[in-house]
Write a structure and sequence with these properties.
2 domains, single chain, alpha/beta
């Protein structure tokens, strides 16, 4: 599980960030003081830092500079101001990205995941482990899916849909969100495609596709894979 350090002195914002990150499978710690944040960032093994600029003790700029001198951990800066100079300065000190308050928590999660994936690609540390739920096993390295050790034949989009849901377990996604994630922006509007593919995946992984235990329909909201 990836560990994220949230450095934020606004408790409500910090808790919101942590809640969303934990929903998507990350472990997140919160610290509000700049000095304590720097100590934790240097001594602990965090996979990414979410760093507010205005902090008691040390500023986000100072923390970023000190951490970057010692580690290559991805740093996402958060600023309440829209001044370009703040962003340029932060990037110049080694931050990987910035996001301005107020922000959509889902955008924050997306940026965290993007930077973690980018870091893993650059360092060659990405190891995608098998995902197992019930009698279903997904091996992302070979792009194979098994049920009771029998390989299932899933076309590309069915596999990507199942993998996405399995990588984000117990989270409800609307048809529109799944269409965007799996088929891309150009496919927006044709939500029937999602329903068809969900049904095909269910036929392959469920004991009884009419009474699904894994891919659940949340009426009026979308679909959720239960693990």
């Amino acid at each position: 599980m990836k560990r994220i350090l949230i450095v934020e002195d606004d408790r409500s914002i910090a808790q919101l960030e942590r809640d969303y990150l934990e929903i998507y499978g990350f472990a997140a710690d919160i610290v509000a003081d700049g000095q304590k944040a720097l100590k934790l960032a240097l001594e602990e093994s965090y996979d990414l830092l979410i760093l507010d600029l205005m902090l008691p003790g040390l500023s986000g700029y100072e923390i970023c500079k000190a951490v970057r001198e010692e580690k290559e951990v991805p740093i996402l800066m958060v600023t309440a101001r829209n001044d370009s100079i703040d962003k340029i300065r932060g990037l110049g000190l080694g931050a990987d990205d910035y996001i301005s308050k107020p922000f959509d928590p889902m955008e924050l999660v997306a940026r965290v995941r993007a930077h973690l994936n980018r870091y893993e690609r650059l360092t060659g540390t990405s190891v995608r482990e098998e995902i197992v739920f019930g009698d279903v096993r997904i091996d992302p390295r070979s792009r194979k899916v098994f049920r009771e050790d029998r390989e299932l034949k899933l076309p590309k989009k069915e596999y990507e849909l199942l993998l996405f849901l399995a990588e984000n377990p117990n989270v409800v996604f609307s048809k529109e969100q799944l269409l965007e994630k799996i088929w891309g922006y150009d496919a927006i509007g044709d939500v029937a495609t999602v329903t068809v593919h969900i049904n095909r995946v269910r036929e392959k992984i469920e004991r009884d596709s009419n009474r699904p235990e894994y891919i659940e329909t949340v009426w009026g909201a979308g679909y959720r894979l239960n693990i």
